[in-house]
Amino acid sequence: MARGLRSWLGGCLLVSALGMVPPPENVRMNSVNFKNILKWESPALPKGNLTFTAQYLSYKKFQDVCTSTRETECDFSNLSKYGDHTLRVRAELTDQHSDWVNITFCPVDDTVIGPPGMQVEALANSLHIRFLAPRTEKEHETWTMENIYNSWVYNMRYWKNGSDEKFPVTCQYDVEVLRNLQPWTTYCVQVQVFLPDWNKTGQWSEPVCEQTISDGKKNWETVNEHPLTDKKQTVYKRKGKV
Predict the structure, then answer these.
(1) Which one of 63, 126, 166, 207 is CB 3.0 to 4.6 Å from 159, fit for a cystine?
(2) Confidence of residue 63 (pLDDT cuts 50, 70, 90)
(3) Which residues are bridge partners to 150 per DSSP?
């Protein structure tokens, strides 16, 4: 509370004594799968409603992306994935404005790899797992993050439901089979992307849990929600002799 009061008093002094608008605070980029959202916090002011303008440098000239917005974020997902970009944002109050606050952002280096999707199928005393690479923002729906990076493996871990002991597995391909599991036992699986050439680790998926079987029946049960979409993929349940 004391810190907030000091910030508010500082804003009052700047505007009343010097006629200056304080700049946006805590300016940072939040980027997942090339969905690039520049975020900031509004400085404290004694009166009036601030607006903000955000730009990026293109061919030695700054281009507007968000102008006179009351939001404290701006979408820069249309930036090229490669190279360093200079972004800047300022606060505005009527005919006055703050200094610009600049940051540098390289999408291919700085974006976070989101959690993969996953399909898990129980067959006898094994789990058959298929990984789904995260989709890339602002690209065709068939284009995934795996198309961007030339090194790509999956770090998977699995465990008995209710146990704290987790077993790691490195998967070079988009399918994996966990064999010789205990029958009629629920196992949970979680996966993330790892880029060896970049030494870059992605976000973990939500766990998917499935019960093994042992009598030749097939049970296709759980499918994760696909990253970057609000739609859940179809869930199939098929049981019968194979």
Answers:
(1) 166
(2) very high
(3) none
SS3 at position 109 = helix
Could you tell me where the beta strands, DSSP code E, fall in the chain?
25-32, 35-41, 51-58, 61-69, 73-75, 85-93, 96-97, 101-105, 117-123, 126-132, 153-160, 167-171, 175-178, 186-195, 200-201, 208-211, 218-223
What gap in Å lies between CA 10 and CA 3, rounded to an integer?
11
User: Is the CB of residue 213 less than 8 Å from the CB of residue 223?
Assistant: no
Q: What is the pLDDT of residue 38?
A: 98
As a whole number of angstroms, the distance between CA 8 and CA 1 comes to: 11
Q: Is the separation of the CB atoms in 146 and 152 below 8 Å?
A: yes
pLDDT at residue 230 greater than cutoff 80? no
Q: Which residue's structure tokens are 């009343």?
A: 16
